[in-house]
Amino acid sequence: MTASGSNLTKEYTQWSQHQRSHQCQRYHDGNYQTDRPEKLKHRSASKCRINEVTWLFMLCLLVLLPLNACANRLSDTKLHEIYLDNKEIKLSWMVDWYKQEVLFHLQNAFNEQHRWFYLGFSKRGDIGDADICFFENQNGFFNVVTDTYTSPNGKFVHKDYQQDCVLFKMDEYTLAFKRKFDTCDPSDFRMHEGTMYVMWARGEKDLQLADYQFPFPNVSQHESGIQMMQLLRSDKILIPETDLKVVEIRLHNVSVPDKETTYWCHIQKLDDFLVHKHHIVQFEPIITTPGLVHHMEVFHCETDWNVNIPLYNDDCEQMPSAAKVCSKVVALWAMGSSAFTYPPETGLPMGGKTYNPFIRLEVHFNNPEMRKGLVDSSGMRIKMVSQLRQFDAGVMELGLEYTDKMAIPPKQIGFPLSGYCIAECTEVALPRTGIVIFGSQLHTHLTGVRVLTRHFRGADELREVNRDDYYSHHFQEMRNLRYKPRVLPGDALVTTCYYNTVGKDNCTLGGFSISDEMCVNYIHYYPATKLEVCKSSVSEETLENYFVYMKKKEHQRGVHLNGARSKNYESIKWTQPRVDQLYTMYIQEPLSMQCNKSDNTRFQGYQWESAPITPVQIKIPMHRKLCPNYNPLWLKPLDRGECDLLGECIY
């Protein structure tokens, strides 16, 4: 161990003793003041447990114990792991929310040939304007760490004037260090709860890290890579029950059509044991052809228990009309996602005496090269328990309708479209005590670059439900939320997607094809309600008036007032004033509101066509804490890039 590592060991030992003597003892001994609020007692107890786990994690690293030797003592819910190279280099990390820092451990980062290793963070996977920690072997010892950042073109590495990669341990195979979420250094990349692009590489040639600037090292693809991940993630959820039942809903050797977009439907009957009600506690994908399956959904057939739904296995466009009732979402998956586990207090209901035993799997095949001869057997594996949990869970779709009433002009860095779940819908559809959202999956197609859902109660904006400023359609995780918002009747939820169409020559329309666009947030919540879809689009009357304006005032002769919406949008010659006009229409004019039950019927009690739009602040503030003496050298922050329509420089 290095001298600095020895000092840090002593420092953390003293720190842990101080924490436990001054914070934890009162909790364990029960010596709280009698008038202390119960919530504060619970918060102190939670903080105490977090600090003890953090101390144990660091002790394992600092005394050079293998991390797996400590795994049975560390909480299984706190430690996250991923193989950076998918086979050997293992990154483990733990989020310390109380101290606002991340503790990293890398196993097999080096071998006897390597002289250096780096781990860094990038906006969207580019090597330009990246924030990188270099770890180097000097004089036979792995004992040097240097905080650096790259030039905008990615050709050079600069030593940072503020060093924020805090080393705990480094030997011939492993290393451990920590970084704060926000170092208040403009040359560091601020960690956030959205998708982060983690860069890594290692090399055999010495680097000139003592110099202020040196060329970015060129290494092979086998010794470098980029992984998309959510670093600041909630604790993992463990399934407390041991008696699990498993149902697989999957395709069987389907010959995939040789066309770009196919939605394939498979209807099957559930197992007989589901005559009794169960709770789904986890679902996970079964992917047999990686890169071909874009996303999947499992739907229950919402009808009487004794209705037979015809079994089916073919293109969804030819699905029999009797299967249209198979529309209540049970489980879903998209590229980049893995297993989703329900919190221990809730589960999604499946089965029962009045439960129809038929279910539909819908698979979106994306085959842009139109390859022939592809065969797929993908599907979903669903785990459930017979001992029911406290709450029935539900799934709800927020965002935009799948319709060509919405369009994105070409040549835009970040054009925003918003889908509304208006206050009038939650007022008639939610229970008096509201619902708790615990899971969220954001979804777009190819041009989506940023997605968020905002929460409004009257004129007040509350904390966001979910936000991903660096969203990628290649990484659409179903995420357990650390902050679980309670949505009350009369609240509004606004889901906004930003689209980059810089390389396109014509507009992009809303729709089902992979070349069309979507804007969806699938939320998992409890207790379950009948509200299945809370989405919007611009109203029919508004769109008709818009095309009249474009034809008569803007002289767009290709617009036909009784023609197809898609053709009208595509005929417009887009200029910046016309882009602004379209955007203004979308954020000001009335909505066509889908406040729907699972059978696609709307809730009664309101006129949903031409419904009023929820007024929101247009500009969304960036999340950065106030930093003393921030940016004394007037450096351009790494997370500042090209600016979108609203002047938000996030790309």
TrEMBL record:
Belongs to the copper type II ascorbate-dependent monooxygenase family. GO terms for biological process: dopamine catabolic process; norepinephrine biosynthetic process; octopamine biosynthetic process. It comes from the Eukaryota. Signal peptide: none annotated. The keyword DNA-binding does not apply. This is DOMON domain-containing protein. It comes from Glossina austeni. Its cofactor is Cu(2+). Keywords: Copper, Disulfide bond, Glycoprotein, Membrane, Metal-binding, Monooxygenase, Oxidoreductase, Transmembrane, Transmembrane helix. One of its GO terms (molecular function) is dopamine beta-monooxygenase activity. Residues 16-38 are annotated as: Disordered.
